[in-house]
Amino acid sequence: MTERLLEDRDGPRDECGVFGVYAPGHDVARLAYFGLFALQHRGQESAGIATSEGGMIMTLRDLGLVSQVFDEEKLQGLAGDMAIGHVRYSTTGGGAWENTQPVWRDDGREVALAHNGNLTNAVELFAELRERGIEFRGTSDSEIIAALLSSSPEKRIEDAVEAMMPKLEGAYSTVVMTPDGIVAFRDPNGVRPLALGRLGDDFLVASESCAFDIVGAKLVREVQPGEMISLSERGLEVRQAVRSTRIAHCVFEHIYFSRPDSRLEGRVLQQVRGKMGEILWREAPVDADLVISVPDSGNPAAAGFSRASGIPKDDGLIKNRYVARTFIQPGQELRKHGLKMKFNPLPEIVEGKRLVVVDDSIVRGNTTRQIVGMLRDAGALEVHLRISAPPIRFPCHYGVDMSTREEMVAHERTIDEIADHVGADSLAYISLDGVYEAVGTPAEDHCDACFTGRYPLGEGNGGKFALEQLATVPAGGR
Ligand code: SF4
Questions:
Q1: Is 447 a catalytic residue?
Q2: Which of 87, 266, 339, 430 is the most buried (most CB within 10 A)?
Q3: Model pTM above 0.85
Q4: CB of 145 closer than 6 A to ligand 1?
Q5: SS3 46
Q6: Which pLDDT score is estimated for 45?
Q7: Cβ of 452: how many Cβ atoms within 10 Å?
Q8: What architecture is domain 268-324+339-444?
Q9: What separation in Å is there between the alpha carbon of 398 and the centre of ligand 1?
C-alpha cells in the first residue's frame, strides 16, 4: 500500500497514539484494538498490537487504519496477559512498513515498544548504537529507544528505563513490553500526553483518556513528567525516574490534537475549546448573522463563540466523515473538486448571510482559502474568520508535522495580509493569553513554540528523514 491517505485537512498532523494494558484473564488484544480505535485521530498511517504470552511476544502491525489492519481472526491470534498498541503518523522516518509500531527487538532482552514524540538527539544516539554494532531495521527514533532498552545490561527493565532516560532528549511518551510486564514512561518535560487508567483490578495506560472510556475503564491520573509506571504480576509500581526541571506540556493538544472528550490537565477538552470560542468573541467581536464551524474540530469553539455573542450557530459546512478512510486519490478530473470531498457548503443556510467561520488553526491556508471561496459561491455576503489558535509561525520539533516555516501562511505576513490571502472579509486569532486563560493551568508549564518560536527543549537536528540518510552507512563504522 504505497498511496498516502487522502488528507483530511492541511493542518498540523498528530504523530502517534499509544496504549498498554496488563490484565490477565481479559481479552487484552481486543482491549488494545478498541483503545487504538479511540486514538485513531492521533495517527492514520499504520497500526499495530503486540501481546505477550508464555514468555513470548507476538506483534502484528501494518500500514492502514486500525479497522483495516485487524480483523476478528487476527485479534484471536493475539493471546496473552498483556498488550501494547500503537497508531502512527510518521514524524521521524518515512511512512514505510519498517517504521510501523510496536517496534520489536531482541538484542539480549526481548521488547516491544510504542512511542509518541520525537527525540531531538536521535542522530547522535543512532550513531552511538551503530558504533556498538547494533543494526536497525527501520529509521524511526522509536527503534532507538527500543534498542537502548533491549541491549541494556540492567537486569530489570525498570532499571534499564531509569538508566536510559537521562540520555534521551526531546519528547517521548512510551510504552514498552517485555515477556514479564509493561512499563510506561514519559519524558521529564511531559510534552506529549500519557494517562493511567483502571479497569476493575487491572491497569492501563494510553495517550488520551478517551481510550479508557471506550473499554469501560476509568482515568486514574496523568503519568507525571519524568515518571515511570510498571504493570506486572507485582501490581502497579511507580517510580520518578528523572527529575523534571521544566514542564512543557504541548498546548496544541488542548487546542486541536486530543479528542474533545479526552481530559487533560484536569479538564475535558470540549469545555476548554468552548471557552476559547467565548474568549475569541471577547477579543475580536464582529457584526454578523450566523456562526458556522469548520467541522469537526472547529465545533466546540464555534459553539462558545455563538454562546458568548448571542449570534445563532448552524451547520453551514457538512463534512464527509469517511473522507480520511480512502486510499484512492481523486485523480486529475476530480482533483479540482477535491475539497468538496471533505466539506460541502449548504447554500440554504449561508446564502445572504454575514458569516463568522470558526476554525481551530490555520497552517498553510490552502483549505481555508478554498472554504472561504466555497462559502462565497454558496451565496455568503461576508466571511469573517475567527481562529481558536494564535498564528502558527514555527515548526514543531517534538513530534508534530507542521510543514516548513516557508509553507506556513503566517510566515512573514501580517494578519491583514493573511486575510487577503485567504479571501476573508476579516480575520482574527485568539491571543496566547486567551489560550492559557481557557486551558486554566500556568503558561510556563507548556510548550507553545509553534506560536512563539521559543523552544523549551531546544530544536534538535536532522529533521524527519535524518536517520534515513545515516542508515546507508554500515553498522560498526563510517
Ligand atoms: S511546538 Fe507546538 S505542536 Fe509542538 S509541542 Fe510545542 S506547542 Fe505542541
A1: no
A2: 87
A3: yes
A4: no
A5: strand
A6: 87
A7: 12
A8: 3-Layer(aba) Sandwich (3.40)
A9: 6
